Fold:
Amino acid sequence: EAFDPRTLPPVERRYHAAAAALYTSYLLRSPRFDTTNASDFGVRCPPTDRLWLDRLIAFCRESGFVSARRDTASPAISA
Structure:
């Protein structure tokens, strides 16, 4: 609730704008997922808080799913 992208450094603001453009409409639809099969095995979703998000991003980077960009003038994210 307190997040304001205007407070981000310029490069992060461009990355945020690019990600928001891709995912905002999807997330605004409040997707729900069937967890019946996972529940049958006693698996519960962890709290989706800041620590969870940090772990998710770290995993994505470590596994090569996403990587840090070194360029700051990519046409896909330039403002």
